Amino acid sequence: MTDTATNTRQIPDRLTSRTTRVFRSWEALLLAVAIAIFIVNSFASPYFLNAWNLSDATFNFTEKAMIAFAMALLIIAGEIDLSVASIIALASTAMGLAVQYGAGTPELVIIGLTVGLLCGAFNAVFVTILGLPSIVVTIGTMSLFRGISYIILGDGAFRGYPSSFSWFGQGYVYWVITVEMVLFAIIAVIYGVLLHKTNFGRSVYAIGNNPTGAVFSGIRVQRVKFILFLLTGFMSGVAAICLTSRLGSTRPSIAQGMELEVVTMVVLGGVNILGGSGTIPGVVIAAFVIGLVTFGLGLLNVPGIVMSIFIGLLLIGVIALPRLWKMAAEKRRRA
User: Fold this and answer.
1) Which of 65, 31, 38 is nearest to 54 (CA)?
2) Residue 225 belongs to what H/E stretch?
3) Domain limits, the chain
4) Most buried of 98, 111, 308, 310 (most Cβ within 10 A)?
């Protein structure tokens, strides 16, 4: 019995080690791509290398990346949350509504985080307790959460946020280093340690690779997944605070389409869309890649719809590439 328990504990360790080896080359490739994009952008636009412009470029990915770190763990565990952008809308609407009744910055922060947690818990109940597919549940809540925002706001907007609230999305810690960038770095380290250095992270890998085997290994699969949905909702609340603070207003269309960019960021970072593998460093590099690309296209006055097309093609390409590579390898073996 002791030997069996020891073996089952070693399974996640082997999975983590194997994942690290496999994706190290992918991370190196991503890093090379990021450097190449940086060089191309520096030649394409004379304004790119300006320190303040580069600082502004971080806003293209920091809020999305905050969610992507939690989303990465969720996808590695074999689930997904497509309602994250709508959670941002609902959390922002709740904060805007509170402002109309005189809420200050501390209250707004608490409201944003609480709404995010509650939305994450709502998704988790349907997936982990009722056993419904996460993609179906979160497509439903994607419409539900944003629909509530539209009911409250209609075509209007909430404004009048306290000046101190703007610190989260517009503040600077030192010179061109933004508050959001510092938050991004801190959150990346936290999630990196959580996934790669703790038993919880090893449980996430084990669940994604073999949920049934994870159960027999003593892992409380549904509880782990419940926590992951809570984390995704919580990070959506954090992103809602930063985005609302940066924009200084709330509209029901806020963050619309962001879920696509978050998922693209995660998958581009090397996380298997089917679960079981992926790393936080890969997601960090992918965030910079997407941020540099979108910022560079923006400096060249490329329309937003073209950027959306690029993100969509990038998502399809990254998902299809491993499959095409596998088919090509099998064809070579048969030949």
Assistant:
1) 38
2) helix 221-247
3) 50-322
4) 111
